[in-house]
């Protein structure tokens, strides 16, 4: 017959020996968690962010450049359209307008009167994602550009046929320039010497000398010019012609059109323009054509077409040029296009009637 007391004693001795020799602690002894003790790591910010103005919902959609996740929606005001980034990336300047939308074919006499109190340039603080102030910059702002040091704004005043030059620090309009009827696209050359402004009604581009803030040239281009983009070295400007289904190429030394390139599409209504970082490709959105076309800047030949959402307008490229973002107004979304294959890799729902796109590099 076994000795029960001896068996119990031996089992207890074994248990004590295991613990004393570094064995597993009792089950109710908590195991330390070094991650929890160190605290949760800060999330890594995306390498860049994409900012999209939504004309009808009056807000700004903020998108992460790596995951394409919508990070925030920022209230702006009435009819936000064109936007520009301060050189240090800390602020966005957004054109706001109290003029009612007047799409082609609408009798403007039937529209409500404009709300001039809503006109201005909304200044968005990128860190807080809030509008910090609204700068008065003439009536009916549609698009906006900055000079290279970020001290002045150049604002296309659509209803007035002018461009307002605004001192950002004081908020004062220091010059008002006649640039042609219905100015829309306004862009500063990368070298900072010139601002080009399109006139939809006069089929021309006004050239503003930034040093003097004077219009020094009026360049005849295709019918209904909409947007302007420059080559990285500032030697060429590319102007979309909505009613000409074409792209005018301008030599910025002589300020003359040196070529006109057909933009393919069925139909083709060229709108937004963007140039690749290496200057080899120019991308054009085709509006009612529902596509974005890549053209070789040396030959003008098509290098591919991506079918995106409805009536794409504003477009912008990622910092390395590998992705293109297209604002598709009636679709209420943004298409993400792989520029190497010209295929859509993502579609992002945004606000009502997305219009303009800008990218800020966070690296």
List its traits.
4-stranded antiparallel beta sheet; 28 strands; mainly beta; 6% helix
- In the predicted model, the low-confidence regions spanning at least 5 consecutive residues are 1-27
The number of strands is 28
The tally of helices reads 2
Mean pLDDT score: 91
Shape category = globular
Percent of residues in helices comes to under 10%
Task: Determine Rg (CA atoms, Å).
Answer: 28 Å
Structure class: mainly beta
β-sheet strand percentage: over 45%
Structure explained in plain terms:
With 363 residues, the chain is mainly beta. Helix content is 6%, strand content 46%. The strands form seven sheets. A four-stranded antiparallel sheet has the order 3-2-1-28, with no helix packed on it. Strands 4-5-6-7 form a four-stranded antiparallel sheet, with no helix packed on it. The protein is globular, with a radius of gyration of 28 Å.
Outline of the structure:
The chain is mainly beta and 363 residues long. The chain contains two helices and 28 strands.
Q: How are the secondary structure elements laid out?
A:
Blueprint: H1 4-20, H2 34-38, E1 48-54, E2 59-64, E3 70-75, E4 83-85, E5 91-96, E6 120-125, E7 130-135, E8 141-146, E9 152-157, E10 162-167, E11 172-178, E12 183-188, E13 194-199, E14 204-209, E15 214-220, E16 225-230, E17 236-241, E18 246-251, E19 256-262, E20 273-275, E21 281-285, E22 291-296, E23 302-307, E24 312-317, E25 323-328, E26 333-338, E27 343-349, E28 354-361
Antiparallel strand pairs: 1-2, 1-28, 2-3, 4-5, 5-6, 6-7, 8-9, 9-10, 10-11, 12-13, 13-14, 14-15, 16-17, 17-18, 18-19, 20-21, 21-22, 22-23, 24-25, 25-26, 26-27
